[in-house]
Amino acid sequence: MNTIRKSWKLSLVLVLLAASAIPALAAGSEADFKAAYAAAEAANKEAAALRNQWTTTAATLAAAKKAADAGDFDQAVASSREAEALARASIFQATSEKQAWKALEIR
To answer: What span, in angstroms and rounded, lies between the C-alpha atoms of 88 and 21?
Structure first.
């Protein structure tokens, strides 16, 4: 059980670290924002299909939209990419939890 939990936490930390590095790479135009936002929304819909959407993903998507509405496309792209990383982490959590319960089953 501890091995599965440690593996899951390590994977989540790596995903979130990667997401935090992305804003440094973000230099966005409106087209970049639209592409990044679409990718984040798609990942969030996939998480919804797995019944594992995170509220932080929705908040980050809202922040991206707000930044884009204000014309700050660098921040909008960065927030969109962060939202995608969060959605992907929630997808990873959902799929790994489908297998992890087997280790907890009393035999």
So the answer is: 16
Burial class, 17, CB count within 10 angstroms (exposed 0-12 / middle 13-18 / buried 19+): exposed
pLDDT, one tens digit per residue, over 21-42 is 555 454 579 999 999 999 999 9
**Cβ neighbours of residue 39 closer than 8 Å, sequence gap 6 or more:** 80, 84
For residue 104, what pLDDT is reported? 76
DSSP 8-class letter at 29? -
Query: How many domains does one find in the chain?
Result: 1
Domain span holding position 53: 2-104
Give the Cα separation of 102 and 94 in Å (integer): 14
Query: pLDDT (tens digit, 9 = 90+) per residue, 61-79?
Result: 999 999 999 999 999 999 9
